[in-house]
Amino acid sequence: MRFMFVGDSMTIGRAGDWTWRYRMWQHLSSTMADAFEIVGPRSELYDAFADAPTSHEYADPGFPAGARRHLAGWGEGWLHMAPLVGPAARAGRADVLLVSLGLIDLGFYTDAEGTAGNVRRFIAEARAARPAIRMVLLPVIPNVRAQDDAPFAAQVELFNELLAKAVADLSTPASPILLAARPDAYEIHHDTYDGTHPNASGEHRLAGEFAAVLHQAWGIGGPYEPRRDA
Length: 230
What we know:
Elements: E1 2-7, H1 9-12, H2 20-32, E2 37-38, E3 45-47, E4 52-55, E5 71-72, H3 78-92, E6 96-100, H4 103-109, H5 112-129, E7 134-138, H6 145-148, H7 150-170, E8 177-179, H8 188-191, H9 200-218
């Protein structure tokens, strides 16, 4: 089974991060042995000094090169990934997309309705490339901006409602879509390093939510048991 991680800065990570992708790879390795593959056209982390995705300095240098693959970008959202997901899914022969997008869209590019429209375009493009593809979509987790910016918080709430509607409207038996829940007890002052991007505990919570949905709905993998060695 081939998984592709799709996301923004919370997914690509920056130089020195573990990333929730790494936590998910650990989980799949422990529950699926060799019966999975990570696919995607990219493998780098974001380098803040270069202001570009040029780093390979993962916190664990033993993170296998093949498992580092993804389709994620710092500052990229549904708007950017919609035209990219089809070619990436086709080239990687992806079976399951694990998607965490939306915060950057709402913060800089499109309103809730426009972002929801890009969700639907993304789904259509993924299916055009891989008609039986499955997807797990994570709602937007409000960041520190939402605490002080009421209109932004309202847009996040509205988008999450529209995301749920899109999942209900578009999920099919041939190509099912699941809506993950906001990770249980996720707290921005504890689970992020800057009010937005996940630290180690946040990474485990994100990976744990994807793992729970995969296991409970589709019998993929098993219960998430975070490794606390890092």
